[in-house]
Amino acid sequence: FGTYQASYASKPDFARVEHEFPLARVDLAKLTPAMLKEYDQEQIDQIYARLTAGPIPDGSYKGDLFFPKGISGERRIREIVGGLTGLAADVGTAKVEILGRHLWRGKVFYRDQRVLRNRIEDTSVLKPLIDGDLSTIPKVKVGNEEQWLMFPARLYCGQSLLDSRRESVIIDYFYTDEIDGYREQPDFLAGRRGLQVRDEIRMVRPGFYLGRAYVGKIFLLNFTLENKDVADKGTDAFVSGGPVVEDCWSGTQQRVVASSG
After folding, report:
1. pLDDT tens for each residue of 218-232
2. How many of the other CB atoms lie within 10 Å of CB of 27?
3. Pairing of strands 167-172, 197-205
């Protein structure tokens, strides 16, 4: 990592970090969600800045989230969500915390449609906010368990809010109400009249993405997405130097990939 101190002014330039400390694919192949949680936020940011978007994912991905190290997740949610206006009176920060930490289990990407839906494990906490017949909410089977598909979003390539040198895959909930299958309750929570959520992701390696979640364009938390089948098929070729599909603009700075030796 590039050297840094607590003050923002001490943070190194991402272009210099990438030039001086290029990441080897073999090192990226060793990263796990548990390992990423052990880094502080500046280190996570430096890793993210040295990644490219890779291909826009397709299919179901298991999700995990983590807040900046040393910062209370509940406190961060209250500080950020509590400062937003235009939320319905019954949308409290406690519901957001429960949804994020206890109910969210990942995302399902529909690459051809450029649409995404979130995997929700249990609707009991959200039941008071869900309108209509619950049986009409689509589901996906993960292993032996069924999970609800809620909170649709649009998928596209766009500028990263952290590192503008290259694009990320953007997961945009702002116009969620225009997506087929949208339900006012509870899908509005993530949209333009709710939390105004915007995620962005970049590929660590095939089947594994590092993401950043924003609320009202303010950074909230980090998350990871994994698809074991994609990883099993593509990791060996990736480590050995095989080509990577780049659906998004990879920037003008040539990405230097360190050798494994």
Report:
1. 998 999 999 999 999
2. 14
3. antiparallel
